[in-house]
Design a protein that fits this description.
The structure is a homodimer. In chain A, the strands form two sheets. The first copy, chain A, has a six-stranded mixed β-sheet with strand order 4-3-5-6-7-8. In chain A, α7 packs parallel to α8. The longest helix of chain A is centred in the middle third of the chain and has 32 residues. Chain A is mainly alpha-helical. The first copy, chain A, has 25 helices and eight strands. Chains A and B meet through α7, α18, α20, β4 and α21 of A and α7, α18, α20, β4 and α21 of B.
Chain lengths: 579, 579
């Protein structure tokens, strides 16, 4: 990919529009049709999950997709309402104590606006690197826990009872409380849809493949199963009059496109929604970039992290002004888009047109759609997100990673998504700092005749009683400076013959000013005892900083380029002195 | 120092009491007399600074010292009210909006209790290492800024006007507002004391030394100057009837020792004071440990960080139940204690007795003491804390350290101590993470004939067009995993001949599971292109984790003990293949 000059840097669409031709158009159109079919029921379902009217899900799948087409840097990412962001929307607005549906909807629009502005500002500041501060296992753990909460939260729609909560204890207690109110007809529709979708998932793909349908096409047809379930249950509801049997239906949806309107800027509400907006943005962004990168890598394309912030920011602002709620790039729909052959973000633009047509023409039929059908769709979709294997993986590989993941999953399940994700971020940062604050320090010696120095405890090496050779396996900075000082003096221990201490700095990538002060004090104390203090293998960037410091001027010893050279020089000096 | 078994681990006093003799007793008694003389005016002054009645400063210098004698691990640290903690006390209680002096005092006691409990719990959990998370320059910057705020805050007492605030803008605006109310007599007392203390500081020590008085003794006499100023201005106030001329006096102080009482446990107030208590504890602890360590190093003694938490925790709880406010180890009084020859913490116990006697006998005379005298004492004392050279030092050494210090000083001056210190801690952590999230990656080659490999940009080295040798100067973890992936592929660049990539892992101290996933994906992509992927110089602890992972099983290459061996082996293989 050649560098995009000027405007194209901020409008990635200029790049791909240049090479746009009829063949690309056909590929994109086909993908758009398939994604539209998949996205209609998903949009309705995630609106239900977020607690907003069903049509809001459709609105959030029109204008945001257009904006992402213009500003997004991923070729195949499909943007729209997704499960985790919808749950987080419900959770954060639910805690505001709003009474009317209109207020709730305005809060959802405001949340999308704040989230969009936050992403846009980060993008303009080129803060894409911030995404890296979320560790991958923590994100996986969070999504797994969210999936469980979402699935359990939908059980009430399957049972046709009232229950609420954004964490497991609340959900269980309210479910049990209302267990007497189960509606048989609702349960019937719910269980049928669950069974239908599960069967499609398990057998349809394999069956189609057996019939000679290519695997990717079979996969796409399977993803269309929810649409079939929607059609079947709408007909069922119409014929059997399910509405009169107490089955909750989606109800009348206003036909036509959303009107453009600014969400009301209520300062008090902004204050309460700013933290949730940041959390939703960050989680949505990290997931989105990770999906975008995975797909891009398959076609040797690239995703620009900063441009993605701008693309997703623009999409969320678009969602806010067109009556929608927070959106981001979704995993399963992006994979469908990719597998269906989408070549450029234009596929997203065509999908938006498809959803717009559906919004204008199909809403009349959706009035009869049972909510239980949508709930079953959600349950089957999110159970795919649940992956507890990350717990086993981290347990085997590293206890620190395991603690961070287990804390994230545990806290998310028990106390909800916002505290859960904050716990995850904090736990991984604190554990990282804790690790670097107590670094591994190895005494080293030469593996005979190799000029290569390794840990005396792990390898058969040669050492000299005159020289203590310590390799510090960490940068020296404020969090470990005094620990390292203590460890060095502990290693000095009872060595009566000691003449020199060499710090081997192969793993020292930084010496900050706190650590520099500690080195000065070590140098002073060693000098008083007549012991030389030397450094070896100091890296260029570290040496640049040390150059000209008081420490280097007062150093009671030398800085050697290689550790081998240090040992040879000091041994020779000692031999000469003892002659 | 031999290991202290059993009880002595928690009661360091058992250790030194064993060896206590008459000579040590005399040394400790002498030091105690000198510290007592210095501590009486300081205690009164810091009480004034904290906003509590003068006698509270004395109370905070009795029982806390006894408890620190029993539980503290530093031999010479002198505990009591200090400037920065007093300022933080005033700032945090001031924001509660309390109306009566009694409520204010109870809040101060509660603050000491919370602070003591927090320190005690950290000590029992052996969390002494937490102190290391505060970078030294940040603490210096914070103390400098606090010193400026304290000095400026005392100006109102010198001028005899009302003014208030815990940051520079507030202080300036209220000072200017009341500038018309300046009291001449107060100003006279204030300026006299300032001039007297400044003169003592500048000439007394030099003069005494010139007269043959030993330097350490001259230093101690100089430190007693505030007592002389107190005596002079009390007499002046009595003779001239300063109280009637509008000079604010300390007023009647209840004689006798404080009675023991639990601070009232008001849940609402606890909630509001918990964060300030934590900040005061942390700052006080870090300062105290740093003073303790410096003094201990001079006599080859040791300070146990965890035990210090327990010692200071116990001292603060003692302060809370005896009508005091937060205390910690003070710099100047500890130096006086040390220079005066204190050998054991018993000196602190004797100081407590000295202060108790003063509380019972001297309070009658203190009624006539002008507050301006105390204010001048504080100004002269805290100006010694102000040290802006840290800004220059960090600017020269490292811009990242400079940013952290400048942010701390700036925010503390403009927005007050609590936000200031939080900013400092956050800034240093975020800057550290930022640095490690964009590590230095060097292409390396052999310095001819040395088996030693260095950066191609800094040294004349030999490389092979077949082999890309990259040294990553950082541990691989979630915050830099994707940056490193991008950099590796950027370095691959346009090398058509490339057959092998070797990652030289001398500086890699950890590979977490996020980074492991990235390595797997790099390995896959390189394998597809027929490029070998190798690691060299992997450290023992890192290798322990990698052993048995999927990554190592699928690795399209080898792990070499030394980088030299890696290059030799791969070059030989290629030569054999091309035959």
């Amino acid at each position: 990919m050649k560098a995009s000059p000027g405007l194209a840097r901020y409008l990635p669409c200029i790049e791909w529009l240049r090479a746009y031709d009829a063949r690309t158009l056909i590929d994109d159109l086909l993908a758009a049709v398939i994604v539209t079919i998949m996205l209609v029921p998903q949009s309705l379902a995630y609106a239900l999950l977020a607690g907003v009217p069903a049509e809001v899900g459709l609105y959030a799948s029109i204008l945001p997709l257009v904006l992402y087409t213009v500003f997004g840097s991923s070729r195949t990412l499909a943007v729209g309402p997704v499960a985790v962001a919808s749950l987080m929307t419900a959770s954060s607005i639910g805690s505001l104590g709003l009474t009317t549906q209109a207020e709730y909807l305005q809060a959802a629009m405001l949340l999308a606006m704040l989230s969009g502005l936050f992403l846009l500002v980060l993008g303009i500041l080129r803060f894409g690197f911030m995404a890296n501060f979320l560790s991958h296992p923590v994100v996986s753990g969070f999504i797994t826990a969210s999936g469980i909460i979402i699935a359990l939260g939908q059980v009430r729609h399957i049972l046709g009872i009232n229950a609420d909560g954004d964490n497991i204890p609340e959900l269980f207690s309210t479910l049990f409380e209302h267990l007497g109110d189960v509606n048989g007809a609702t349960l019937g529709v719910g269980l049928f849809t669950l069974a239908f979708l599960a069967a499609a998932r398990i057998w349809l793909k394999a069956g189609l493949s057996a019939l000679g349908v290519p695997a990717f096409a079979a996969g796409i047809v399977t993803k269309a199963a929810p649409v079939v379930a929607v059609v079947i249950t709408i007909i069922w509801a119409g014929l059997a009059g399910l509405g009169d049997q107490g089955v909750a239906l989606v109800g009348m949806i206003p036909a036509g496109l959303p009107s453009l309107v600014m969400p009301p800027w209520d300062t008090e509400m902004v204050r309460e929604l700013i933290v949730p907006a940041i959390l939703i943005s960050v989680i949505g962004y990290v997931e989105s970039v990770s999906v975008g990168k995975t797909l891009a890598a398959k076609r040797r394309q690239k995703v620009n992290q900063d441009q993605e912030l701008i693309g997703l920011g623009a999409a969320n602002i678009a969602s806010a002004v067109s009556g929608g709620f927070p959106v981001t790039g979704g995993f399963s729909r992006s994979v469908v888009n990719f597998d269906a052959g989408a070549q450029t973000p234009a596929a997203g633009f065509f999908t938006a047109i498809g959803i717009a047509i559906a919004t204008m023409t199909l809403t009349g039929y959706l009035a009869l759609l049972p909510k239980a059908t949508l709930a079953a769709t959600i349950i089957v979709a999110v159970l795919g997100l649940v992956d507890v294997s990350i717990l086993k993986k981290t347990w085997v590989y590293s206890r620190h990673d395991f603690i961070a993941v287990a804390a994230t999953i545990g806290v998310t399940l028990l106390a909800g998504v916002e505290i859960g994700v904050s716990t995850g971020v904090l736990a991984s940062l604190v554990l990282h700092l804790y690790k670097t604050s107590r670094p591994h320090i190895a005494e080293v010696g030469e593996i005979k005749g190799t000029k290569h120095f390794r840990n005396v405890k792990r390898h058969k090496v040669e050492t000299s009683p005159d020289i203590l050779q310590l390799r510090i396996d960490e940068s020296l900075y404020f969090a470990n400076a005094s620990y390292i000082e203590e460890e060095i003096f502990r290693n000095l221990g009872e060595r009566k013959q000691l003449r020199h201490v060499i710090l081997m700095c192969t793993a020292v990538n930084e010496i900050d000013i706190s650590a520099l002060e500690v080195l000065e004090s070590i140098n002073e104390i060693l000098a008083e005892q007549g012991i030389g203090f030397h450094l070896s293998e100091v890296k260029g960037p570290v040496m640049d900083h040390l150059e000209g410091t008081h420490f280097l001027k007062k150093l009671n010893g030398q800085v050697f380029l290689s550790h081998y050279q240090a040992v040879q020089t000091l041994l020779l000096e000692d031999t000469l002195l003892s002659l």
